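Below is a filled-in request sheet from our internal design queue. Each sheet records the structural input a requester submitted and the sequence that came back. We keep these sheets so that new team members can see what a complete request looks like end to end.

REQUESTER: design group, bay 2
PRIORITY: normal
MODE: inverse folding
CHAIN LENGTH: 464
BACKBONE (tokenized):
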């Protein structure tokens, strides 16, 4: 539940960590959510509609096929939502729509929709406001547009209309006991209250739901994350999309287990364990499986991998502290989203894997006993060393370089937390300044390096 507090949007832990489907939170989940919102809009109209159309703009057009944006829009118009996605039913529904050229929209009946002509990829200039835009339209019996709404998928599965994008937030800071908008405010509130970052975040969350609901929701987040790791470690075969990328997590995991049994592992092999957990998640994401935005799908492996590393490889780790980890990570993710971006289409991969690494570093530092200052330092170290990273998915697929990039993001998170805990929390570059540097870098970055698949690795690939 996102609630505006003061000049910021209060972001719940369940906004930062959302259960959804792969391969992209902004290009798959967001458009599906937008379609569901459009159906709600149509159901409130005083007149009936006969047909539907959709137009994709900007990054949604350029990498839409690779990110399954077209499928997401169609299924969203048929009533599917990311958190309750049924893969088997979705495939049958898509086949029926392509065969009948109609959508059965819940509460609206049978509406005309021919995917090849009514779903348009507009490769012109992006719409003002955000790189990820889609326009959804309803038509009458003659095919004339009688209702229309523009939606922006702003990263992490968040969706706003064109009107919402430009509206100032009302002043509701009094709704929450710790309404920090910056890391500096967060640290000052921690000093005055004597509370940890997780404790302050929990106090804010309890204004929205009771303790049992909060704890159960957090437990579900980790359960879905861990289940995703397990599926990824057992999955085999070629990932969809045409790149012929083979799943590797299962083979790497098997080799690691065999080496451990023979006591042959070198100390640096722990990096392979961290990487394989992350790769397992992102191979599942690339296959369109169920994942948790952390804070996005493209960066979904970093936080779960860091948690699995902590639980399975760090002496004294306890699942009882999972709430502390995830609440701390969500606090950092909320600051980054509020003051910069978590969208690859806005700021490149520094905003996705960089943000995820900062969140994971903060969470790990917290559960390892770090002070709020050390936690903030850990987040800053991790984010700082992702600055400038482009989003350049080959063929628009969340596979190359995304899968391995999550593994390296998790390794950086662990290293950042460790470095921060070696100090007392004092450091040269504040997290707020690092976040602002990321925002500025993203604003200056060429559009071809921001999730359009028009630059970088996306145009430097083997010819064979």
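RETURNED SEQUENCE:
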């Amino acid at each position: 539940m996102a609630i505006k507090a003061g000049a910021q949007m209060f972001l719940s832990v369940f906004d930062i960590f959302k259960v959804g489907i792969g391969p992209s939170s902004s290009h798959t989940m967001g458009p599906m959510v937008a379609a569901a919102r459009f159906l709600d809009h149509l159901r409130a109209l005083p007149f009936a509609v006969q047909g539907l159309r959709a137009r994709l703009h900007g990054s949604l057009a350029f990498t839409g096929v690779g990110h399954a944006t077209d499928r997401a829009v169609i299924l969203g118009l048929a009533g599917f939502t990311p958190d309750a996605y049924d893969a088997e039913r979705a495939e049958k529904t898509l086949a029926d729509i392509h065969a009948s050229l109609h959508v059965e929209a819940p509460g609206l009946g049978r509406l005309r929709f021919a995917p090849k002509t009514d779903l348009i990829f507009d490769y012109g200039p992006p719409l003002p406001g955000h790189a990820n835009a889609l326009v959804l339209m309803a038509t009458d019996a003659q095919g004339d547009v009688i209702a229309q709404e523009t939606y922006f998928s702003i990263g992490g599965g968040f969706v706003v209309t064109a009107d919402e994008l430009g509206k100032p937030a009302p002043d509701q800071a009094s709704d929450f006991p710790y309404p920090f908008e910056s890391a500096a405010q967060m640290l000052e509130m921690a000093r005055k209250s004597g509370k940890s970052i997780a404790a302050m975040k929990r106090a804010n969350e309890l204004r929205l739901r009771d303790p049992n609901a909060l704890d159960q929701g957090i437990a579900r987040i980790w359960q879905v994350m861990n289940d995703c790791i397990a599926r990824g470690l057992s999955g085999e075969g070629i990932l969809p999309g045409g790149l012929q990328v083979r799943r590797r997590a299962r083979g790497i995991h098997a080799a690691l287990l065999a080496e451990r049994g023979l006591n042959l592992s070198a100390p640096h092999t722990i990096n392979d364990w961290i990487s394989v957990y992350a790769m397992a998640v992102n191979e599942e994401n690339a296959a369109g499986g169920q994942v948790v935005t952390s804070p996005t799908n493209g960066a979904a492996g970093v936080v779960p991998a860091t948690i699995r590393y902590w639980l399975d490889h760090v002496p004294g780790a306890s699942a009882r502290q999972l709430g502390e980890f995830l609440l701390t990570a969500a606090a950092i993710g909320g600051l980054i989203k509020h003051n910069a971006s978590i969208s690859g289409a806005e700021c490149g991969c520094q905003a996705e894997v960089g943000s995820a690494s900062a969140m994971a570093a903060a969470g790990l530092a917290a559960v390892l006993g770090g002070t709020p200052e050390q936690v903030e330092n850990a987040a800053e170290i991790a984010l700082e060393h992702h600055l400038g990273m482009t989003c350049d998915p080959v063929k628009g697929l969340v596979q190359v370089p995304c899968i391995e990039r999550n593994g390296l993001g998790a390794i950086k998170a662990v290293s950042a937390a460790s470095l921060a805990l070696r100090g007392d929390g004092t450091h040269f570059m504040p997290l707020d300044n690092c976040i602002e540097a990321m925002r500025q870098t993203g604003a200056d970055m060429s559009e071809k390096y921001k999730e359009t698949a028009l630059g970088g690795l996306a145009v430097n690939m083997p010819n064979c």
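SHEET NOTES:
- DSSP finds 19 helices and eleven strands in the chain.
- The radius of gyration is 22 Å.
FILED BY: M.R.
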